[in-house]
Amino acid sequence: MRTPTAVGFLDADCFYVSAERVRDSFLMKKPVGVLGNQGACVIARSYEMKGAGVDVAMPVWEARAICPEGIYVKRDFRWYEVLSRAMLGVVRDISARVEYYSIDEFFFAVGPMPGLSFQETAEAIRAKILAEVGVSVTVGIARTRTLAKLLAKSAKPEGARAMLGRDGETALLADRPVTAITGIAGRRAKRLLPWNILTCLDLARADRRLVRDLLTATGEALWWELNGEAVQPIRPERVAHKTLSRGGSFGESTLDPIILYAWLVRNLERLIEELEYHGVRAGRLTVWVGYKDGQSGVGQANLAVPADRFDLLLDVARPCLRAAWVPRVPAARMQVIAEHLVPRGRAQIGLFDDPESAARAEAVARLKREINLRHGRFALRSAATLPLAAIYKDNANGYDICDVRGKGCF
Fold first, then answer.
1. Domain limits at 206?
2. CA–CA dist 353, 308 (Å, integer)
3. Considering the entire predicted model, what is its pTM?
4. Contact 84, 103 (CB under 8 A)
5. Domain boundary among 102, 129, 161
6. Does residue 409 fall inside a structural domain?
7. Tens digits of residue pLDDT in 93-123
């Protein structure tokens, strides 16, 4: 008799906080906040701090006013990656098909463990992660990945639920707003509103063709998933990147164009690291700048020949930054985005390239990589980043969540 299989979803509870507690038990049962770029805002908080009223993305000074007894620590994505990959290893011991969805979320194919029901299997997986990694997680097991994720979210924190019958699924979907589904946020929810589709169950019971018209093929796939048909596969290998980007908050907003340019160069150097790692060149570059008053500016340019060289990309990035710049308004964040990615070996060569100049640029890039590999990630960098000396001195800024490779998102 064939062993039935389902889709499991594992989601760590307050992962960044849990990771900090693994290495410092003093933080257990206390209100803890993990701070983001330059310690400016809360990017994660414990359930104790959440209960005090602190929200994610809240500036740290506001959080301290609301929760003065809180303990605030800088994020450490190198450590979080260690525990993330430890969890990944445990899940791979259980399942032959595992998708590394995000730093603290995993989809996996699962059958009941020997002698156990699906519910007992979910509980056993949760206990195994806690025992071997020290991190509290919630596990959901259902017929599809969409149902498994909704189920796990409904069981947080420290939950374990298995549900493979229509009656239980109906109750779950009726109790969740349609925005609880990953991929349906504000705009898509507004498209559904005139059709009175407010809950997950409303979406599941809507006409499939209507859902496709409103939400395209992506929405139709969700419709099938909500109705128990597993049409979204588990991907053990990450699909190829369509875009690569680097950036984030400045921590402290700036009016100074020299500092803004320094951030452009920093983000471009980090982006080139990724282009080189993935063996691709960029055919288009976009510079997006967000401002303190809510405005944003965008500059975009296509490259005549796809490139991953610092000198060529900087020549394109400068006018993009000028187009994105809003004078006399403090800039607060930036993203530098590479699109139209072409594998390095298939990128065309420019008709008017100077071979000697290209060879010199490649030699400089190679030397830079070798020095930084030996002496530290930013040991050798552009002098344009000197105004950001404090950023480079702070080890917390040396590694970010986007530097954790192999995940499906983030």
1. 165-237
2. 14
3. 0.91
4. yes
5. 161
6. no
7. 999 999 999 999 999 999 999 999 999 999 9
